[in-house]
Write a structure and sequence with these properties.
With 198 residues, the chain is an alpha+beta fold. Helices cover 43% and strands 22% of the residues. The longest helix is centred in the last third of the chain and has 40 residues. The mean pLDDT is 89.
Length: 198
């Protein structure tokens, strides 16, 4: 027979079971509460933001469209996980050229970014990623995090295009000029792409 004095799962004075199993249950409940609170903050922020958004394919995922100027739309994936909230947003695809300068620029810029960083996926495409512990997630911190993602994606976009895709942009510019096609999508790079045409 098990001695109640030494049994790791015994009843307390109020009848509650105590011991390792109870502690594990309590820890799980607290984690679930933090997760629920973080997800509620995300839902509330999205509802008040006026931004286009939808549920993602993964549990706890929301995809929000962040409108910019240089980069007109940045799709950010916000995922509420078991221990943290993660954000990832596609910036540009793998560069065609000037790889060393391109990646050096990303690493140098990472040092100055507020709580986010440039990262590469398995294909070499460029993303911005960020992470918050669940206990730190509220509407203000979420606004700051996604604001940093939008500002960085938008302010970096043209620089990355020039470093990694100038040759392909030049070919498109020349093709459009030769056929009288509009070049408004390349207007920001006109000073680099013009070759003397009126």
């Amino acid at each position: 027979m098990t001695d109640p004095a030494t049994d790791p799962a015994t009843e307390s004075a109020n009848g509650a079971v105590t011991g390792p199993a109870s502690a594990a249950t309590t820890a799980r409940q607290r984690r679930e509460q933090r997760e629920a609170a973080a997800e509620a903050a995300v839902v509330s922020w999205l509802a008040g933001s006026g931004l286009e958004h939808e549920l993602g394919a993964r549990p706890g995922e929301y995809v929000v469209e962040l409108p910019g100027e240089a980069k007109l739309r940045t799709a950010a994936s916000v995922v509420v996980g078991r221990r943290d909230l993660t954000v990832s947003a596609f910036v540009v695809r793998k560069p065609d050229e000037n790889h060393e300068a391109f990646y050096r620029w990303l690493l140098t810029r990472n040092v100055r970014l507020p709580g986010i960083a440039f990262a590469l996926d398995s294909l070499g495409d460029v993303y911005l990623v960020g992470r918050l512990p669940l206990h730190a997630v509220d509407e203000e911190t979420l606004d700051n995090l996604l604001g940093a993602v939008l500002t960085t994606a938008d302010s970096s976009f043209n620089d990355l295009l020039v470093m990694g895709f100038l040759s392909s942009m030049q070919r498109e510019w020349d093709w459009r000029i030769s056929r009288g096609e509009p070049t408004h999508n390349l207007a920001a790079f006109k000073h680099l792409l013009q070759t003397g045409e009126a």
